[in-house]
Amino acid sequence: MPHIQADGLTVEFPLYHLGARSLKKRLLAKSPLRLREDESHRVVVSALRDLDFHIGRGERVALVGHNGAGKTTLLRTLAGVYEPVGGRLEVEGLIGSLIDPTAGMDQSSTGRENIVLRGLFRGLSERESEAMAEDVAAFSGLGEFIDVPVRNYSAGMQVRLSFAMATVMEPQVLLMDEWFLAGDAAFMERAREKLAELVGNADILVLATHDMSVVREWCTRAIRLDGGRIIADGPVEEVLGPAQPVPRAGEPAEAAADGPQP
Ligand SMILES: Nc1ncnc2c1ncn2[C@@H]1O[C@H](COP(=O)(O)OP(=O)(O)OP(=O)(O)O)[C@@H](O)[C@H]1O
């Protein structure tokens, strides 16, 4: 049964090339909770500290928190990109990852070739994969660029392709960073239905975002991170509070309420 279980999950990043000893000392003194010196005398950032949570089938979880809180690190750790340095993590189920647009793509192959490879990887026959590539190519709206190597794509084109490819994966555990929801308006208009389908068919959604209206629309539960720790975990209404009234012209929107902090 698809689920995610984390016990004492801890992720750290060493900071290389910090230079002078005095700089190290200053950093460690300024942020003793987030930074520490390890056994090899490297300064390390505690990106995720001792997280305990369980996400079960049917849950749609938003990761919220200010810049640097640990949202993307947690998504990437769930996707297997980062290895925890402490604790235990179990992710059961086929993972679909909309975190880094070029992850899992061969840059020297064309968009079409990448789609076919994904199909073969999923166990489809060559003929099925090629037929699927036709549909995905049409949905991506990349036109003739579908037959150009991916390394020549613009950032927006890469998002289009990875989004289109994700729709054919049928993942059980869908991991998504918010910028996948921020493609160009015309494409997102068309993609919305597919996205709803993708989310609806997944057993678990974990979405990192600053946009509280997106959280309310897509999620049932929110985990608030701060400084790499969980400071709140519960139903969306409980963690975010009641929805703010729609702002009038000139007033900040609710989305900004969780935006960057100095
Ligand atoms: N590759 C890395 N090397 C060193 N430190 C890193 C690395 N990736 C993240 N960090 C650090 O880990 C912490 C958490 O970063 P993360 O990107 O997960 O935050 P976030 O909540 O996703 O922020 P944002 O909302 O700005 O995207 C930060 O202090 C950041 O500096």
UniProtKB/TrEMBL annotation:
Family: Belongs to the ABC transporter superfamily.
Bias (Low complexity): 246-262
Residue span of region Disordered: 241-262
Organism whose genome encodes this protein: Paracraurococcus ruber
Segment forming the signal sequence: none
Lineage: Bacteria, Pseudomonadati, Pseudomonadota, Alphaproteobacteria, Acetobacterales
Keyword list, A-Z: ATP-binding, Nucleotide-binding, Transport
GO molecular function, one term: ATP binding
Classification via SUPFAM superfamilies: P-loop containing nucleoside triphosphate hydrolases (SSF52540)
Segments crossing the lipid bilayer: none
Ranges for domain ABC transporter: 33-252
Pfam families named among the record's database cross-references: ABC_tran (PF00005)
Name under which the protein is recorded: ABC transporter ATP-binding protein
The organism's place on the tree of life at top rank: Bacteria
InterPro entries linked to this entry: AAA+_ATPase, ABC_transporter-like_ATP-bd, ABC_transporter-like_CS, ABC_transpr_TagH-like, Bact_Polysacc_Export_ATP-bd, P-loop_NTPase
